[in-house]
Amino acid sequence: MATQASTARLAGPDRDQTGDLGYVARLPILDRNGKAHGYELLFWNGGASAARAESDPGHDAALDAASVFGLEELGCGLPVFVRCSLESLSGEWIQHLTPGSTVLELPTGTEVCPDALSMCRKVKAQGFRLALNDFSGQPGWWPMVDLADYIKVDVTQVNADQRRELFSSLDSCNAHAVATHVESQEQYSESCGEGFELFQGHYFCRPEPLKNHRIPGNRLVHLEILETLQNDPVDINRLRQLVMCDADLTYRLLRYVNSPLFAIRQEVTSIQMALNLVGEATFRRIAVLAIASDFNADQPAELLRMAFERARFCELAGGLCGLNPGEQYLIGMVSLFPAMLRIFMEDLLRLLPLRTEARDALLGKQNPEGLLLRWRQCAEYGNWEACDEIVRSAGIDHLQVLHCHAEALGWASEALK
Fold it and tell me: Is the pLDDT assigned to residue 14 strictly greater than 60?
């Protein structure tokens, strides 16, 4: 599943506050239009295996995240789904959550007793919403269906025939049907046809590449801009000419330069002025940001968010590993360009003058330049143990990496505004 991991308040963490916190992974839940409906949050403090952590609510970590970060910030203002057990609904931890924006996600593998039903009605009356996780029509859980706001079905565990039978049984149910573990466009199309309204998985960043797809002319200009940006020093006159060939790109670039992201104290009205004020290194970053926004025009916004987060994280953490921050920023951003442009990575790399090491990183080879991209990709899957192994093998500080990632999430949120 596509996830996003953090351990700090999006505006920037307080090191004293976050010293003991573990991972928080964020799994986007999208609607049929590719728009984010909400985020499931998974918590892990390193005290259990990753497999156990995914089924355990991790109440202490959830409480820390709720009190220190604010679940609303982690959820970008959308509903947040928090896993918990039936027994834990009576615990004090739940009182620290915000009812109107929190969905309590219940496992369906245990028995439902009258006391549990009563507790579910109580938390519903408080304003919480309920989701049934991994539902497959388990006997004894049908009384819960009437209370549920979301019913989540794992499409890898419940086959098509079983799903059709399940939908028939749920015909009078008002809950939103959520397909989980949707990892391909084929699974997404099949789930849509079956009646699912919401989808969780990596499918949105894996659109099928188009056969014999030719990149539009204006986007070829964008790739030429990326090529020009790799020169040191940058040919300023050539860069200005290329950028001004595309009015939309010029607008996007100036909008980013004038945004709070870069704290420019005077209004910037031209490309030349932007270059003079921010300098080459920052201008490179802003230009790549604007190009990515244009590339993603026809794709879900969540894909762009993921690209921004990858780029900024790789840039910030690059200094911890002795890697070039500018190149790391580009590696993080370019890693999702094939999904945006619907071409193969190999075809894209033929058009970009990247170093061999950067190309190898983008092709998934195990080299130092790909270290931080691999960490981020593991975080997107909620594979925390793999994240820790990458950090250990590189000899870098675990908490510093997490702070870089938290800052990257906040930066991406501001950029998307």
Answer: no
In the chain the domains, ranked by start, together with CATH numbers, are: 4-204 (3.20.20.450), 217-416 (1.10.3210.10)
What is the number of alpha carbons within 13 Å of residue 335 lying toward its C-beta? 33
In this predicted structure, what is the pLDDT of residue 63? 56
pLDDT tens readout for residues 91-127: 777 877 888 889 999 988 777 778 888 999 999 999 9
| Look-up of token digits 């989808």 | 199
How many whole angstroms separate alpha carbon 200 and alpha carbon 133?
A: 12
H/E element holding 363? none
C-alpha distances in angstroms, 95 versus 82, 98, 329? Answer: 13, 8, 40
pLDDT for 240 beyond 50: yes
Average pLDDT over residues 117-138: 91
Q: Is the pLDDT of residue 266 over 90?
A: no
DSSP state of 210: P
**Strands 23-31 and 4-6, bridge-based pairing:** antiparallel
Helix (H, G, I), strand (E, B) or coil at 62: helix
3-state secondary structure 93-147: HHHHCCHHHEEEEEECCCCCCHHHHHHHHHHHHCCCEEEEECCCCCCCCHHHHCC
CB atoms under 10 Å from CB of 121, counted, come to 12
* Cα–Cα distance, 354 to 361 (Å, whole number): 11
Instruction: Give dist(CA 237, CA 224) in Å, integer.
Output: 14
Please name which of 309, 255, 238 lies closest in space to residue 4, comparing C-alpha atoms.
309
Average pLDDT over residues 2-15: 41
The CA angle 133-137-141, to the nearest 5 degrees, is 70
Residues 6 or more apart in contact with residue 251 via CB below 8 angstroms: none
